[in-house]
Amino acid sequence: MPKKKVFELNPNISVDCVVFGFDLEKLNILLIDRGESQFVSNNSLALPGDLIYNNENLHQAAYRVLEELTGLKNIYLEQIGAFGDPNRISKEEDRLWLESIRDNPEARVVTIAYFSLVKMEDYPLKASSFAKKAIWIPVKEIEKLAFDHFEILQAAKIKLKEKIKIHPIGFNLLPEKFTLSQLHKLYESILDKELDKRNFRRKVQKMNLLKRLFEKQEYVPHKPSELYKFNEEKYQELAKNGFNNFGF
Amino acid sequence: MPKKKVFELNPNISVDCVVFGFDLEKLNILLIDRGESQFVSNNSLALPGDLIYNNENLHQAAYRVLEELTGLKNIYLEQIGAFGDPNRISKEEDRLWLESIRDNPEARVVTIAYFSLVKMEDYPLKASSFAKKAIWIPVKEIEKLAFDHFEILQAAKIKLKEKIKIHPIGFNLLPEKFTLSQLHKLYESILDKELDKRNFRRKVQKMNLLKRLFEKQEYVPHKPSELYKFNEEKYQELAKNGFNNFGF
DNA sequence: TTTGAAAGTGTAATAATGACACTCAGATAA
DNA sequence: TTATCTGAGTGTCATTATTACACTTTCAAA
Asked: What residue spans in chain A does CATH classification 1.10.10.10 cover?
């Protein structure tokens, strides 16, 4: 008894996305508040995700979820891995929520987790722009999430750390124009440790992916900083040869 | 209409394993020959894998497949990621094979791929020990595999390369007693490039995970090599601090 | 006893890393 | 107008890591 396949949700396979954003101070992730009340509770927060359709591939499914959520396209997206403990729905509130949104809430689900990097400026959170409320929460403040989403977040953080050490993906989190201090703080946030200012600057200058704009910050109560942008051409050039030199 | 969950195969989720072995000369992987004939054809080779049961987690499923195949337990196993293009069953021979072994051969399947490292000496291939014939094939000779398994193999090779650069997992592929030249050749096979002999030796000596046995090779037609074994205790010690120093 | 084949060994030049402290430029407030 | 505050920006030196490179040794087999 083969089922019709196309345009059907697959009850057993979902994607979940860890969307990182950087507010120039700290790392945040985008979470869905499932709660009824207007107050955010740790218990009601979940990663954005959805069951996949049988006719879309996994990346497409993740893109779809992100686009529905943020309206953004061409987002940096990378698979973290598959999570699918049979007992991942162990909390009562998770069970109830699933019953409210799924046809087959009891089904065994394996979820494919992705992480994604967005420029927070491109995604200003509009008040009630979605039925499901999406909110930015600082990564450091998250202690608990729905299902196995906390575990997925830990894996996402590790993956991001590993990746940023060998590949200059940090620019996806910064505005077009940024200062070296902002880049510095970004790396410190992701790697979760202090980096010496001068050594950091030497290193990023050497990797040769920055284009100095000869513009300065304005209206800051201190010496204004030079602005830079990411040099896309140099990136493409280096990309072929594998970026050997990013050991932070 | 919730289905009974326990002890049922899930028609939508499978695991596939890339089992690496090292014959002291080159890297091999363990493949299943689906062909009827006694001659191995590239077309008939597939990664070992199976649908998962709804009551087992993904790691358990991979272990189960490996144990059924090799009889080995406590195998090094690591997830590569999820693969699930809706068109992964594009070849006619794959479709036919699925029809012969699956209840629901049309189902959309997402597979979770694992790679695994075994000591080939622990797994001497017995003639016809399995209905499905399992055979070792040198990685370099593989040009084509069933479904999307060739793509999975590429991902496995990349993952293994990345991992071995930062973590001393190579020992899982070597016999208890081994020579530095064998270790050297192993790293060259995995990284697919030549490594300077003296620099390599300096580096592995510095990482301090080798225990010299003060035994020598015998009956080799050249100067016999010192034998070493892997120092498990030192490994445990270093494991906590994160192995910073393996940049090959 | 000679030969073949891989084992084993050290050094020097260059590059990368880590530690460290002061001056500069602009905004704001007195 | 001057003083103060804040973060921007900069260089050097010691240590460590990396790369490149060639000859001698030991055993087995002929």
From this structure: 170-241
Looking up tokens 């054809």 gives: B41
Measure, in angstroms, how far nucleotide C9 C1' is from residue B181 CA: 14
- B78 touching A (Cβ < 8 Å): no
Query: Which secondary-structure segment (H or E) carries B76?
Result: strand B76-83
pLDDT digits (tens, 9 = 90+) for B89-135: 889 999 999 999 999 999 999 999 999 999 998 887 655 455 568 89
Q: How far is A82 from chain B (nearest CA, A)?
A: 6
Q: Which residue of A has its CA nearest to B247?
A: A247
DSSP letter string, A71-96: ---S-EEEEEEEE--TTS--SHHHHH
What distance in Å separates residue A160's CA from the closest CA in chain B? 15
CATH 3.90.79.10 domain extents, chain B: 9-166
Per-residue pLDDT tens digits for A30-71: 999 887 666 667 668 999 999 999 999 999 999 999 998 888
Name B residues 168-227 whose Cβ lies under 7 Å from strand C. Answer: 179-181, 197-199, 201-202, 221-226
> Which numeric CATH code is attached to A9-166?
3.90.79.10
Place of tokens 């601090």: B241
- How far does CA A209 lie from the centroid of its chain? 23
Sign of the CA dihedral with A104 first, then A105, A109, and A111 last: positive
Q: Phi, psi at residue B27, to the nearest 5°? A: -80, 140
